[in-house]
Amino acid sequence: MAALATGLGVAQLVLWVGKIILKITQEADKVRRKKQDCAYLVRYLSVIHKMLPTLPEDPELELPLNHLYSTLQEADKLVVACIGRLSFLRCRSDAFRDVNAKITSDLSLFPLAFYTAVARRRAEESILPDRQDSGALTEGSSSSGSTSTHAHASLVSDYHPRARPSRLTWAEVEEATENLAYLLGEGFSGKVYQGRLHRGGRVREVAVKVLNEHGHQGMEDAFVAELETLYPLHHSHIARLVAWCSEWERPIFVYDHMGNGTLRDHLSGLLGSSSPSPVASSWKTRLEALLGVSRALLHLHREAERPVIHRNVTSSNILLDASWKSHLSDFGVAVLRAAGDQGQPVEEVVGTFGYIDPEYSRTRRVSSASDVYSLGVVMLEVLTGRPPVSPGLVTLVSSTLPVIQNGDLRNVLDGRPALGTTPRQLEALQNVADTAVLCLWPRGGDRPPMSKVVDNLEQALVIIRSDET
After folding, report:
1. Domain architecture of the chain: domains with CATH
2. Is 209 annotated as a binding residue?
3. Which of 3, 41, 195, 264 could join 316 via S-S bond, C-beta 3.0 to 4.6 A?
4. Helices and strands: H and E segment counts in the chain
5. What is the DSSP code (8-state) at residue 303?
6. Mean pLDDT (10-residue bins), the chain, 469 residues
């Protein structure tokens, strides 16, 4: 695509970008197919158009504006293709997803304040697609009339209005955490502090994550990536983003606090609590935790506005709330999934030793199957109670998988839960073990999709619930 000439100045470049956005908006009213895809694109661009005048006259913005203009030329051609009668091959939902991804990528080159303002307005104006696989946006699903007229009615946000994260000042973060006084723990991407957020006369227990330092630009990139991933996500088994702050020298995310710690805490038996943990004593509670997280991953892979690969599924990133419901957390290294999910290249392999998909580690190409592998490791932890890596750096996969494959599941089962004597309970646990074996296949293409994992765990839990009271 042809770029604009350099040296025009930010004001002139903003004018040209604004013109092509208006052109796309006008053309979208004429489309014959993919009306919902066009409507989403138009609403996304309308937010950008509103924010363009806020850009400062900074020469460093000329290159990002040129990149954005080139991508908008692609978007323009795509919308025009949807007007014609014969351009079936070019007018595809995955093409719209790709161009939306490029626009978002281009925006990440702009100042952080501009990028986050666009992200916030997108959520506030409810311009996220329906909660279904984006591939389900089909021709003819929109009612008659112009695309823009029906966009608000047909495109509904995953977020309930009460669930939208808000922006905090640093003073509010200081007050909530008593100046970061109580450290809860440290994850891959940052330290987490306990806090109490006072809003509207109510007090909310929160966990405040302060991102690790990776150089100023690296930290900004990490903040933007995590915010972009989390902002549109809303699922009952995903740790909820309550608020965020970008005022301080290090960006901050605020989540609902989970009162019962992590799945790893309870499997390790090192909490030191006087009351017994239901995770330690009950197969039902363990399987419920597994099923909840598998549903969260299914949402990320297939149902979210933009599919997400978590890249760091571990028992330490599975949080348990006061009712022992599981929540997937720590999206610091998550990536937005490219169309097709055939594996996308990444600059570096990240994750936690013992959980990392060996194919991803070897090829530096990540896919949804990488999350499936990591969940398979968590399944082994749940079955055995053992950590993912022993003190001698022997992985749980290498020590346990051969035993299960030889049909000796009983030899590795954790002895703490009351196994009982019924064949039905053993059948359920064997179902989980067999599913773990499938998830841990060396080749990603041989692993089951998360929908199949959910089905298997649901069946196992039904059996366990019928026998465990």
Report:
1. 10-137+150-155 (no CATH), 166-256 (3.30.200.20), 263-467 (1.10.510.10)
2. yes
3. 264
4. 16, 12
5. I
6. 61 89 90 76 88 84 88 90 59 77 81 71 51 32 33 28 70 93 83 89 90 61 74 88 81 91 90 76 94 97 88 96 94 83 85 96 95 98 96 93 96 83 85 98 96 97 83
